[in-house]
Design goal:
Elements lengths: L16 H31 L3 E5 L4 E5 H27 L1
Antiparallel strand pairs: 1-2
């Protein structure tokens, strides 16, 4: 059984044109913001694609700068979550 598409309706059961227009505008804004974010992400990756030397404690390696940045951000996020979890347990 197919479902009917959801439409904004007023109290009298008629489609509310203002609500539908507002939803359309919101969807367009979301698409534009997503598109701009995607363009910025692509520019960021291209701008940071050079290969750099990475020094670890026991060894050295070469990696693309974008991977170094993303790995650092991920490790920072994990440490942040770990600190929050430990701090939350101590308060209990």
């Amino acid at each position: 059984m197919a479902q009917k598409p959801m439409t904004p309706q007023g109290t009298d059961g008629k489609v509310d044109a203002h609500a539908a227009s507002k939803r359309q505008t919101r969807d367009i804004v979301r698409l534009v913001v997503f598109g701009l974010g995607l363009i910025l992400l692509i520019a960021f990756v291209i701008g940071n694609s050079t290969v750099v030397k990475v020094n670890f404690v026991f060894f050295n390696t070469r990696a693309s700068l974008i991977w170094v940045i993303l790995l650092s951000a991920l490790l920072g996020l994990l440490v942040d979550r770990l600190i929050i979890a430990i701090h939350g347990r101590r308060k209990k």
